[in-house]
Task: structure prediction
Amino acid sequence: MTKTFYILISIFFLSCEINQNRKTPDKEPNILFIIADDMGKDALNGYAEGTIKPHTPHLDAIRKAGVNFTNFWTYPTCSPTRASMITGKYGYRTDVRWANQKLNENEVLLQKYIREYTDDSYATAVVGKWHISGYDTTINPETFGIDYYAGIFIGSVKDYYNWPLSEKGKQTISKEYTTKKFTDLAFNWINKQEKPWFMWLAYNAPHTPFHIPPAEMHSQGGLPPYN
Result:
């Protein structure tokens, strides 16, 4: 199984000072954390693995200007990695050790921790794939104190152009390509914010099934159907 590879697009750690055991940020930058699902180094420029590399000028620019990890470990499936990233704990401590396992509702998520230590300065959102509440559809990011959630609850979709969208406690069918829809939802939410925000944008791409994206979304030329 392809190891899940996570791309940190833009995350800034708050510079803090300790005053009577309380952390006070010098400034409160916005935080955008983007995750790609089941994406390996073989699909990215800058790494030796792989023979066919996609054209990704924006990711390449971020890679060249930022930090690249060349020696790292990850879980062989996505759920425990997501749970670890969002809690700061290993899978055996969160009890999410494989796909479809459930994160305990008492866990403190990264977003809530940051908000509590910045005097509730941040608006928080999760857009995209969740997949750390098992099969319990009553538990989503908002259960854990996230302000806004929209996306897919389960691990994958059967069709990138026809899939169940969960938002504000309701489920509808979206006919938009998932990557475009998630980007638009995140963009729209960010534009409404009047205070610093933390957006956790979790794409389900390039997880199976491999459906060709709209032509205007890429510059790869004519893409053949997946065999």
